[in-house]
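Chains adopt folds. We examine one example:
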Amino acid sequence: MATYLEFEEKIRKIEEDIIVAQTKSDEHAAEILDKKLQKEVEKTFTNLNDYQKLQLARHPDRPYAMDYIRGLMHDEYEIHGDRHYVDDQAIVCYLGYIGEQKCVVIGEQKGRGTKNKLKRNFGMPSPEGYRKALRAAKLAEKFNLPILMLVDTPGAYPGLGAEERNQSEAIARNLYEFSNLDTITVSVVIGEGGSGGALAISVSDKLAMMRYSVYAVISPEGCAAILWNDPAQAETAANSLKITAENLKELNLIDDVVNEPLMGGHRQKDEAIQALGDYFLNSVEELSAVPKEERHEKRYEKLMSLGSFTDE
């Protein structure tokens, strides 16, 4: 059963009417309703506000990192542990192939169902997760393999144990090391990119976002609690924070927007997975044609330009 969001109520009603018409073998009515559905879908999804896009980014049926890994990779082998403390299940690392391209994929995994969400810590990595990601990245660098990073986290885990094991240092170390990697790196925000937890695997030659993903320094709920002491103001905050793919592309904070299906990747997972795979392979082909020194210089210039502005 599909999970409908509040703004999809008209779409839900039409789809139910289509099922009734098909049950009655009324093909004429089903055809009319199908055209009505297409118009309603276009009207709804071409006029989404930022808060509605946030809801899509958090949709429970949205493809997670493991969905992309299973859908894109073959002959894959999982890399476990940071060789210091433990194997953080909130970050997954795989060595394998996407098409004919050998690569390493690093992703943040939220998990489905209570048991799996707890196992994955709701997609909130601890320091050992980021150190595992760095270990996998260094392995890729050693063998000159391109890296695909899949960002999807509400933020790094803020627990006492994570702080004791130096969460901030682990994130800062990744920012430094990923900015200096010799190999090709491509990062894609597939759902929710929250704060430093997302940034730790976002420093790359190319940073892209799926159409209905978000990327922000703080969640709209957190922002609303700080500014208005009222989490109910989350929608106002979301529409002010400029967190969507279109906003960040316009501000030159990301390189590209990956066009997942109009109704969202949760409705057409195979198409969303294919779109991301094509983007990665095309990016690797494009970046492979650039000399390493020039690629490093462009990465440096991109990082140094973040936050720049002109006073007019």
